[in-house]
Amino acid sequence: MRIGIIGYGFVGKAIAAAHDRKTLMINDPNVLEEWESYTIEQIVANTGWIYLCLPTPSKEDGSCDTSILENMFEQLKNYEGIVISKSTAPPKFYIDTFNNCGPEQSKKYKFRLVHMPEFLTAANALHDYMHPHTIVVGGKPVDNTFVLTHAITSDLTYRTKAKIVSTDIGSAAAMKYYANSWLATKVVYNNQFAQWCKSQGVEWKNVAEVLKKDKRIGDTHYDVPGPDTKFGYGGACFPKDVASILATAEAAGVDMSLLKHQVEVNEQLRAIDTSPPKPAPAPIRQRANIARRVAPTRGK
Fold first, then answer.
1. What is the DSSP letter of 109?
2. Which of 12, 39, 157, 297 falls between 20 and 30 A from 126, CA-CA?
3. What ranges make up the beta strands (E) of the chain?
4. Chain-centre distance of CA 205, in angstroms?
5. In whole angstroms, how large is the CA radius of gyration of the chain?
6. CA atoms within 13 A of residue 12's CA, in its CB half-sphere
């Protein structure tokens, strides 16, 4: 039985790279030439499970746009295998979809839905996928067991010693949002604390190296400035997921003022100019001397 991958962004590419290519059927309009692209119908007819690696961008109000994911669920509605969604979306969205899955005629979708949130950076997606700290599988216990027994063992990645957690689909979706919003908050706090260290005559990098040894705090997200040479956090995931939490919280009347303030502080940090200072112009007399030295010699 073959494995389907729908969506070939940095998540889909990482999953593909971790499998025996002979077992894969990939669908994406941007699939590279070395991969044969299959139709949805072909994937439905020939696979035991399908990875969905589809984008869930932010709407103008910050809420999560699940329309691409919903459209694919509709195309897969008669699929009787397991759909393993890697896409980040609010817990309620996944719970509502999950409750509409099953063999009963009253259900909208025949497939069995499992959510496996992914924690990859675009710059190091394959490395991150091949070296996971934790693997979370959210769905019915019987489907989680299938994924843990078959899907994971077919994947070269999961021969590592990552912690594997089986839970319900809503909790799997919520923990992804928690993780990203917490790490985003950690980045902002580390940026501010680094400024405090500087005011005290302390080197932040030295402090960070000590903090990394403390298992309670964790050993990541200490770079100030970050990998993009700017202060605060940016990228594709943190801003989008934080905005989604705030939008759903506002709609539900939940106070998330701490996270909201974190966003305001991050915007201030991102606005700081981190470009290297331009060299001071040479004195006028020095510039005149330089000009005379480089002036072309006129022909006679």
1. B
2. 39
3. 2-6, 24-27, 47-52, 82-85, 112-115, 134-138, 163-167
4. 26
5. 25
6. 24
Lowest mean pLDDT among 35-44, 119-128, 264-273, 282-291: 282-291
Structural contact between residues 44 and 78, judged by C-beta atoms closer than 8 angstroms: yes
Each residue of 184-218: pLDDT tens digit?
Answer: 999 999 999 999 999 999 999 999 999 999 999 99
Residue with tokens 């025949």: 110
10 Å Cβ neighbour count for 235?
Answer: 14
- Which secondary-structure segment (H or E) carries 186? helix 169-199
**Are β-strands 82-85 and 24-27 bridged in parallel, bridged antiparallel, or unpaired?**
unpaired
Q: Are strands 47-52 and 82-85 parallel, antiparallel or unpaired?
A: parallel
Residue 298 in this model has a pLDDT that exceeds 80 = no
233 phi-psi bin (left φ>0, alpha ψ -120 to 50, beta other): beta
- Residue given tokens 């984008």 in the structure block: 55
- Longest Cα–Cα distance in the chain: 97
The label of the residue with tokens 């990394």 reads: 212
The H or E element that residue 193 is part of is helix 169-199
Query: Which whole-number Å values give the CA distances from 184 to 58, 89, 194, 236, 262, in the listed order?
Result: 17, 17, 15, 12, 8
As a whole-number percent, the residues of the chain with pLDDT over 70 amount to: 89
291 has a pLDDT exceeding 80: no
Quote the CA–CA distance of 184 and 96 in Å, as a whole number.
Answer: 28
Count of residues making up the chain: 300
Read off the pLDDT of residues 248-260 as tens digits, 9 standing for 90 and up: 999 999 999 999 9
Tokens describing residue 266: 């991050």
In this structure, what is the dihedral angle of CA atoms 45, 46, 47, 51, given to the nearest 10 degrees? -70
Q: Could you give the domains of the chain?
A: 2-167 (3.40.50.720), 175-270 (1.10.1040.10)
